[in-house]
Amino acid sequence: MAKKVVATLKKEGGVSYAKVIRAVKSDKTGAYTFKEEMVPSTLVQDTLKK
Prior knowledge:
InterPro entries: DUF4295. By secondary structure, this protein is mainly beta.
């Protein structure tokens, strides 16, 4: 299972955001790449379940 990292960022405009970083394994080469997403803090768990 790939490692998942979540960093909580400061509030801007009343909404708190988090940066979610996931390691994704390539089917072709087997190498790992990192996918970064900015999501509202309330949706972090839903994003990680994908």
